[in-house]
Design goal:
globular, three-stranded mixed β-sheet, 2 domains, alpha+beta
Length: about 325
């Protein structure tokens, strides 16, 4: 009986103390080259999610939350392997922030691990909402999303044994961006890679037209309309190696390309322009900040026969796909 009691105590210590500590440090159980088979259920680990629309915190099973993220962040019409890649990225993002695994939780919403505002967390949508969004495709799409999450259950992305910050964007427009060319920090796994796989994206190249007066209004009253006319108001000061604008002169002022993009509502910072009388026409490549995984690029790679592990390792340099916990 003493031996049995010691064994039970040892198991409890491992589950409640050692395993969480390992996860907190980012030391994971074992590498996984193949996805585990669906287990017919979801993990008992729960996550506290702040629902932006309802202004409340809802605790739900982690894998159920991930299904809502995949459905919100990725078109369900994508190839299954692309959806799996999104599921693993979403799980990594969530675990890195969950307090029970050493994360800081939601800084904007105390008490929550994460929120559904994509500006601060990951987009999320409920099944009832998806019945309206997906309509007649609901049954088919729900099955695809559930399969993407359950077939990758427990898998996360790591670099040197630690969970990565798996940032992603819609469309690269030909090449992803280095982290330091968008933000201040150079991150070893967020390196620029060629991406010719998202040409089927509706955002691969787009145009946006507005009047000079409208542009001046969006940029603020510090930039008079008169300074923006005749091609003299805008001048690129610096582009990154991928062609995205890092700094631009606007009516005598210097702006970050990211700030200019946000002010005008441009899809990305990879743009050119031409004046047409009292209007300006922007031609834009890609959609989003360009760092990390291109979602349409992931779909393109899947169409070319790549599995989700190959997709993730293509966009996140030097990473491994590992199992964070056993079920």
């Amino acid at each position: 009986m003493r031996r049995l009691g010691a064994l039970i105590l040892g198991v409890m210590i491992f589950i409640n103390i050692i395993l969480p500590a390992l996860l907190t440090r980012g030391c994971l159980v074992s590498p996984s080259k193949k996805a585990p088979q669906p287990r017919g259920g979801i993990t008992l680990i729960t996550i506290k999610v702040y629902l932006e629309k309802e202004k409340r915190i809802l605790e739900m099973p982690l894998e159920e939350y991930l299904m809502g993220v995949v459905a919100a962040e990725t078109p369900a019409s994508f190839e299954p392997e692309a959806l799996k890649a999104q599921a693993v990225a979403a799980r990594t993002y969530a675990l890195k922030r969950m307090r029970q695994f050493g994360g800081r939780g939601s800084q904007e919403h105390p008490g929550a691990d994460i929120c559904t505002d994509p500006q601060h967390g990951q987009a999320w949508v409920s099944w009832p909402e998806l019945t309206r969004i997906w309509g007649n495709n609901y049954t088919t799409y729900r099955k695809k999303v559930e399969e993407a999450v359950l077939s990758t259950s427990g898998l996360v992305i790591v670099y040197n044994g630690f969970l990565i910050d798996p940032v992603f964007h819609s469309t690269s427009g030909g090449r992803t961006e280095n982290s330091e060319d968008v933000w201040s920090e150079k991150v070893p796994y967020l390196r620029s890679v060629v991406c010719d796989y998202d040409r089927h994206s509706p955002y691969y190249q787009t145009t946006l037209e507005m009047t000079l007066r409208e542009m001046a209004r969006k940029l603020g009253n510090a930039v008079p309309t008169s300074t923006l006319s005749n091609g003299g108001g805008l001048r690129v000061l610096e582009r990154s190696d991928t062609g995205r604008i890092k700094t631009i002169r606007v009516g005598g002022q210097e702006m970050k390309g990211t700030d200019f993009r946000t002010a005008l509502g441009l899809p990305s910072t990879n743009f050119t322009w031409e004046y047409q009388g009292d209007k300006i026409r922007f031609t834009v490549r890609g959609y989003g900040h360009g760092v990390g995984m291109s979602q349409y690029g992931a779909d393109g790679l899947a169409r070319n026969g790549k599995n989700y592990i190959e997709i993730l390792q293509y966009f996140y340099t030097g990473v491994k796909i590992m199992r964070a916990f056993e079920e």
